[in-house]
Specification:
Elements lengths: L1 E3 L3 H12 L5 E4 L12 E2 L2 E2 L4 E2 L3 H19 L4 E3 L2 E4 L3 H10 L9 E2 L3 H5 L9 E4 L3 E3 L1 H14 L3 E3 L7 E2 L2 E2 L2 E2 L3 E3 L16 E12 L8 E3 L3 E6 L2 E5 L3 E2 L8 H11 L8 E13 L5 E4 L6 E5 L5 H18 L10 H4 L3
Parallel strand pairs: 1-2, 1-15, 2-11, 7-17, 15-23
Antiparallel strand pairs: 3-10, 4-5, 6-10, 7-9, 8-9, 12-13, 13-14, 16-19, 16-20, 16-21, 18-19, 22-23
Helix pairs in contact: 1-7, 2-7
Length: 342
């Protein structure tokens, strides 16, 4: 199997294929504009109307085992629990929470509000706040360091730009493969076989700040997310800049993030670092997975978007089940959903 791209999507697919005893080659130029600058937050709720994230009941149990297994295999630590406290932005949002917390299907993800949630004082809290359960983050740098080490030890990663002119059917640079799987993130627009899929580049920028006031034992959320990183440093973000493939940082985005942060604290924080990446996003907010309608040995696993670290583990297993055993893909991710609309 040839996997093109070793970001989050390609790495998870390669790991799943290896687990099933497949020979895998990875082609990647080691320049990752999405996975490595992502903060790696895993949050089961969508706060606007206090709904559960898509298929979260399936994804969460699986991803915990998946990431912990990689930690055990590599002797590393990158998968961490972090509580999220949502500081409500309105009475309506608080009322959404109060209704949902009574429902049995939300019990695993919501701590019932008590007086301490109204009294919380380490962030602006005019309407009270809610504590989310089953929340985690991936420490992205060690995660990629460990996966790269695993692939390098097995000699399966080619550190180079993929050259489409060298792809002849299922042969690449003279080596034959059973299947070719494209996991190129926002660079999908360069792919002559899948470029018509509606995968849009969405630039995102994130700050690392130093704060004397923010708590280091919880991720606060209102208008932005705040992820404690230790030693009074925090990741704060992010922006959504549509159809932008540049990776340069901008003063405008820095000010936008800091303005959102002002809804949580009044402190003048110090900006330590600013980074930009480009996410592969899809208008219907579902990944793009499946097989080319004319080239049956060409496949795609892409479009994971902002929730990629939650979606990738299980979806990559389901994709490998589809490839190796012919199991059906979830209709909501199958690229056939776009073909049927033509």
């Amino acid at each position: 199997m040839l996997v093109v791209g070793a970001g989050l999507a390609g790495s998870c697919v390669a790991l799943q294929l290896q687990k099933r005893g497949c020979d895998v080659s990875l082609v990647d130029n080691q320049t990752n504009y999405s996975s490595k600058v992502a903060v790696g937050m895993i949050n089961p709720l969508v706060f606007r109307r206090m709904t559960k994230s898509w298929r979260v009941d399936d994804f969460l149990p699986y991803l915990k085992k998946f990431y912990k297994n990689i930690e055990a295999e590599t002797g590393s630590s990158f998968f961490h629990s972090v509580p999220i406290r949502r500081l409500f932005s309105s009475e309506q949002e608080r009322d959404f929470w109060l209704k949902k917390e009574k429902r049995e299907d939300f019990h695993a993800y919501m701590t019932p509000i008590d007086q301490s949630d109204y009294d919380y004082s380490l962030g602006k809290n005019p309407f009270g706040s809610g504590r989310v359960k089953e929340t985690f983050f991936i420490d992205v740098d060690p995660f990629f360091l460990m996966t790269l080490e695993l692939f390098s030890k097995k000699g399966i990663i080619l550190n180079e730009e993929f050259d489409f002119s060298q792809l002849k059917e299922t042969s690449y640079k003279g080596v034959s493969y059973d299947e070719v799987i494209f996991c190129q993130g926002y660079l999908n627009y360069q792919n002559p076989f899948f470029k018509d899929l509606p995968i849009d580049p969405t630039k995102g920028q994130v700050l690392t700040i130093h704060s004397e006031q923010l708590p280091e034992d919880v991720s606060l959320n209102r208008k932005c997310f705040i992820l404690p990183k230790g030693n009074q440093k925090f990741k704060v973000g992010s922006t959504y800049e549509w159809h932008d493939t540049s990776t340069n940082i901008t003063e405008e985005s820095k000010l936008h993030i800091l303005e959102n942060l002002s809804f949580i604290i009044d402190e003048e924080v110090k900006v330590v670092e600013q980074v930009a990446g480009v996410r592969p996003t899809v208008k219907d907010r579902r990944p793009t997975i499946g097989t080319h309608p004319q080239h049956s040995h060409y496949h795609i696993f892409n479009g994971l978007g902002a929730k990629g670290y939650m979606l990738a583990p299980l979806l990559s297993e389901e994709f490998v089940d589809y490839l190796l055993e012919g199991k059906e893909l979830d209709k909501e991710v199958n690229i056939s959903r776009f073909q049927s609309k033509e």
